[in-house]
Amino acid sequence: MREEDKESSKGNLTYLLYESALAKSERANKRMFILVIILTAMLFISNFAWIIYESQFEDYYLEQEVDTGEGDAYVAGGDIYGTSKTED
Predict the structure, then answer these.
(1) 81, 73 Cβ separation under 8 angstroms
(2) Residues sharing a CB contact under 8 Å with residue 74, sequence separation 6 or more, in sequence order
(3) Is residue 66 within 8 Å of 73, Cβ to Cβ?
(4) What are the residue ranges spanned by the domains of the chain?
(5) Best CA proximity match to 75, nearest among 86, 85, 62
(6) What pLDDT digit, counting tens, does each position of 23-59 carry?
(7) CB under 8 Å to 85, separation ≥6 — which residues?
(8) Which of 18, 49, 54, 77 has the least CB density, counted as fewest CB within 10 Å?
(9) pTM
(10) At a CB cut-off of 8 Å and minimum separation 6, what does 71 contact?
């Protein structure tokens, strides 16, 4: 083989290696981009499903005044706590 052919084949080999590495990285980047899109969509779907699930339960509050005479009182869990002055 001539020297020119050796250098030419050496240059072609490095170019082919570069092209294959570039193609491999492009495929990897494309897969990563698709994965990011899928995970983002799954995050939004999960949040939306959780909001739908939680919206089936209604929250309601009941305010109730308790007359304890001259003392103070508050209701927690159905039990009345507080102080009250009673006349003996």
Answers:
(1) yes
(2) 80, 81, 82
(3) yes
(4) 3-83
(5) 62
(6) 999 999 999 999 999 999 999 999 999 999 988 877 6
(7) 69, 70, 71
(8) 77
(9) 0.50
(10) 82, 83, 84, 85
